[in-house]
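Field reference: sequence -> structure
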Amino acid sequence: MNQTMTPAISLALTLALVPSFVHAGNEDIWGTYKIISATVHWLDTDQTEDAYGKHPNGYITYGKDGRMMVLVAYDGRLKLSKPETATIEQRDQLYSTMFAYSGTYTYSGTSIEHHIDVSWNEAWTGKTVIRDITRQGNRLTYVTRPQTSPRNGRLEVVTLVWEKVPESKVP
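Structure field:
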């Protein structure tokens, strides 16, 4: 009887260990982070400037379930008193001064891949974006690989700094 139970026990132990193996290392990144700064470095002129204004606002969250979400609004966005009466130009300005997407993620310790399954920009849906990543204390710094800017077609590298938000205690 012990011989027939051994494979079952072995399988049960293996299955019990799979979640921790699959997510090994991800616990280093789990949580919510607030954007601190974002700069863009233009490769054609070697100039660096604020990417989303001096004080962008936004968050990125990495869950234990392997899913992530990000929402970033640029500094100085248009504020409408009656959004339902927005002109096409105003809607375009609002659309072009934010980004948001969600999906799954793969974290290696030196890079992170966002596998996007829903996005404010349908051109990103179904894509994977890769960011090189470094950690310093409670901060994450992402650096994009050289890419064509959707704003002006120039080659750019964007650096984003995120700071971990303390877990909130719900009463």
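Note: Residues 22-164 form a domain with the Lipocalin fold (CATH 2.40.128.280).
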